[in-house]
Amino acid sequence: MEEILRVENLSKKYEDVDVLDGISLSVKKGEVVVIVGPSGCGKSTFLRCLNGLEDIRDGSVFLGDEKINPNKKNLSKTREKIGMVFQSYDLFPHKTILQNVTLAPIKVKKRKKAEVEEEALKLLDRVGLISKKDNYPRQLSGGQKQRVAIVRALIMHPEVLLFDEVTAALDPEMVREVLDVVLSLAKEGRTMLIVTHEMSFARAVADRVIFLDGGKIVEEGKPTDFFDNPKTDRLKKFLKTFSYEE
User: Fold this and answer.
1) pLDDT per residue over 180-231, tens digit each?
2) What angle separates helix 97-107 from helix 142-154, to the nearest 10 degrees?
3) Quick check: 72 pLDDT over 70?
4) CA–CA separation, 9 vs 159, rounded Å?
5) CB 68 within 8 A of CB 62
6) What mean pLDDT comes out for the span 121-136?
7) What was the pLDDT predicted at 108?
8) What pLDDT does residue 174 have?
9) Mean pLDDT value of segment 63-70
10) Can you tell me the distance from the alpha carbon of 140 to that of 145, in angstroms, rounded to the nearest whole number?
11) pTM score, two decimals?
């Protein structure tokens, strides 16, 4: 498989704190990489650096052969190629679900409204929300809003999808409906980087799992090796905090 995303020695500082400390990573087309780690270890910051939402102190991020530079004028074009789904949904409250989904491709990509709406309806149907197309976000559950946010990212036809703790704000019974959508995208061969605290989901969806701690990659591997045979004491200790789920 060809490499689609490459990170070289990425570093990021907030005042005197190293949030990311020399991270290097290569992601192949169609690969699902799950990033886990304790709160505050830099997982969300890492994703935000990948699509230019955060500036980078040192290092480089490449999408294919193109270097991502947060200060470049064409950054919005890069963001179209690297879609991001946030934990907070970020839907426009005064627009219907269909309007929320179609706004960016019509305004940003200048696509024809009829064509975009047709695709939007197919995507909403796929995630079980076709009946909610004329509703407003306040009329939807958290899980439904998160599925709309995923559709909104998909309709921009991104080459890479980033998911930042997309189930963190949901009630437990709503988590499954969102994770099922992400699992179906993985089976389609979508390239995804996923930050999550859901370890069983990480095991099910990932081609590779990365453990981030103190702004560094401490360990990485295939899900079976990562969860069943962790090599570092730090990862062993981290995974033990989830043992109550078993």
Assistant:
1) 999 999 999 999 999 999 998 999 999 999 999 999 999 999 999 999 999 9
2) 20
3) no
4) 22
5) yes
6) 96
7) 87
8) 86
9) 82
10) 6
11) 0.92
**The two three-digit tokens of residue 112, written as one number:** 């024809």
Q: Encoding tokens for residue 191?
A: 């390239």
Spell out the long-range contacts of 119-126 with Cβ–Cβ below 8 A and sequence spacing 24 or more. 119/155, 120/151, 120/155, 123/151, 123/154, 123/155, 124/97, 124/98, 124/148, 124/151, 126/151
Can you give the pLDDT at residue 245? 47
Q: Which residue reads 């290092």 in tokens?
A: 59
Placement of tokens 């079980």 in the chain: 128
54, 44 contact by CB (below 8 A): no
pLDDT at residue 73, as a whole number: 67
- Please calculate the CA angle 41-81-190 and round it to the nearest 5 degrees: 75
For residue 26, pLDDT beyond 80: yes
- What string of DSSP letters covers the chain? --EEEEEEEEEEEETTEEEEEEEEEEEETT-EEEEE--TTSSHHHHHHHHTTSS--SEEEEEETTEEP-TTSTTHHHHHHHEEEE-TT----TTS-HHHHHHHHHHHTS---HHHHHHHHHHHHHHTT-GGGTTS-GGGS-HHHHHHHHHHHHHTT--SEEEEESTTTTS-HHHHHHHHHHHHHHHHTT--EEEE-S-HHHHHHH-SEEEEEETTEEEEEE-HHHHHHS--SHHHHHHHHTTGGG-
